[in-house]
Amino acid sequence: MTHSKRRVTPSVRLLRWLYLVGVICFALGVVLQVFFAGAALLVNPDYLNTHRILGNTVALLPVPMLILAMLARMPHRTTLLTVLLTLVTALQYAFLWGVTDIGLPVWFRAFHAVNAIVMFVLAERLARTSWKLLRGPQVE
Fold first, then answer.
1. What pTM did the predictor assign?
2. What b/e readout covers 86-124, taking b as 16+ CB neighbours within 10 angstroms?
3. What is the extent of the structural domain holding 113?
4. Are 119 and 85 a contacting pair, CB within 8 Å?
């Protein structure tokens, strides 16, 4: 049984570009988050408010990215990694606010910083995969 490959439509290609822009914005947002967290600790605590506002904005990106991944008919692995990115992003709030509610020690909140590394690595991986998909043959 052979499957013929069909060309990717211009609308799907556009959606894939939008997905790539979203994942790059997310990765850059995480880098800025780390910068502002460091600035709040090492320069001036007022940077914490910038960190908080930017974090709440960046945290919104994975949901439209997930929708774009499905509409753009991204490979299943990419879509699943986008689901994982959405869950890992939600974990940021659990590490900050939910730790004491479920009886974990307060120091467990430090995983908020470690999770930022996971978020960046996932975003970088998704960006590379998306770029390769856009630069390769435009067939599905």
1. 0.90
2. bebbebbebbeeebeeeeeeeeebebbeebbebbbebbe
3. 10-135
4. yes
pLDDT of residue 102: 80
CA distance linking residue 18 with residue 41, whole number of Å:
34
Q: How many domains does the chain have?
A: 1
Which tens digits make up the pLDDT trace of 25-58?
999 999 999 999 999 999 999 999 999 999 999 9
Residue 71 burial (CB count, 10 A) = 14
Q: Are residues 85 and 127 in contact, defined by beta-carbon separation less than 8 angstroms?
A: no
Residue 115: its pLDDT value, please?
Answer: 97
CATH of the domain at 36: 1.20.120
CA–chain centroid gap for 43, Å, is: 27
Give yes or no for a contact between 108 and 99, defined as CB atoms under 8 angstroms apart: yes
